[in-house]
Amino acid sequence: LCLLCRLADAIREIRKYDDVTEKVNLQNNPGAVEHFHMKLFRAQRNLYIAGFSLLMSFLLRRLITLISQHATTLASNEAFKKQAEGASDAAKKYMEENDKLKK
């Protein structure tokens, strides 16, 4: 949520400083032009940082989900394997007992 707020704020700042250079005549004060270009650069930089952070948060969340699902699958596979081995051992035991009873 905070990353979305920062992204929206960066977009708002870019629009604010992009419109200023078109609406206001800054030809008489060259220092003001540099100041507004500096503010616009900072707003663009913040947009890129916020966008990259948002993308990384989505990727990390997906990676954590996949790792968790993989661990759950491995645990269930081990449980199924032990259950199958137990059933196989029990079947062998009953077959041996059945053979002994027939003799």
Automatic annotation (TrEMBL):
Keyword hit for Cytoplasm: no
Membrane topology: Multi-pass membrane protein
Superkingdom of origin organism: Eukaryota
Domain BAP29/BAP31 transmembrane: 2-79
Main location: endoplasmic reticulum
Record keywords: Endoplasmic reticulum, ER-Golgi transport, Membrane, Protein transport, Transmembrane, Transmembrane helix, Transport
Subcellular location as annotated: Endoplasmic reticulum membrane; Membrane
Keyword Membrane: yes
Family the entry assigns: Belongs to the BCAP29/BCAP31 family.
UniProt function note: May play a role in anterograde transport of membrane proteins from the endoplasmic reticulum to the Golgi.
Stated name of the protein: Endoplasmic reticulum transmembrane protein
